Sequence to fold (304 residues):
Amino acid sequence: MSITLVTTLADLKAVSAALLAATPGGAGTLGLVPTMGALHSGHATLAAAAVAANDVVVASVFVNPLQFGDANDLARYPRTTEADLALLDAAGVDIMFAPSVAEMYLGGEPAVRVTAGPLGNLYEGASRPGHFDGALTVVAKLLHVGRPETGLAAPDAAGRPAYRAYFGQKDAQQLALVRRMVADLNFPVDIVGVPTVRDDDGLALSSRNRFLSAEQRESALVLSRALRLLAGRAAAHEPLDVASAAELIRSAPGVELDYLEVVDPQTLAVRAENCQDTPFTGEALALVAATVGPVRLIDNLPLG
Ligand code: PAF
Fold:
């Protein structure tokens, strides 16, 4: 095993600086892959994207209490440290940073937090109040502590920093909010979105899929089916008829639809036009969320 496990902020800085110093020229690029562990092949794809593009890669594994509204949800979130370490090692990651809560939030919960703003209250935020404030707070912190003091190369010819952070496109709202935070607050990091990984039957990979029974998993396939239906109509410039796609989801046994929305891919503002009866034009993103048995699932697909 060549990956190094570190659990303190000080060790993270020291080990990443040493690895960068050992790269040709003594300076290089660093990729950060923030995760909450319970890693699956979707995370392996994130890690592989970071490994392919950077000299040194750090993956963080930290179940962030700030982004859980429900204590039971936090308690039952899967913790699989040994398996996570093995997966990251196989993907070529150099450092797994797995701090304790006390190490991350010195003296307890932070009093000052990042506020996600209006977008943080829509879609996932509507049913999980405070979730995105908690997620952005820990991402802000990880982006700071993951940035080495020494050894980073100069920005590339296009001015992009040698420090990059990788997020899955499956969490489209989180990715949009992280991009917005980094732009609004001038974080010196390049945010890279990595496409969603799906099982052969179309189900988007998620750490929560393990809680689905075989029947619930079968029902959950309706989410990606409905998204593909919309994508097919968009590609053919047909009316999207979102209402019928929503009905398809509602008709699946045990599936409770929360939302199915067609939104602007950058701002995630709802697209009011071209979503029902008139021919679809332009680009959009279809977002879906539903509860299936004990699990809340989200998915999305670009349209057009
Ligand atoms: O997407 C996740 O796994 C988490 O929200 C993140 C970005 C690691 C922050 O805790």
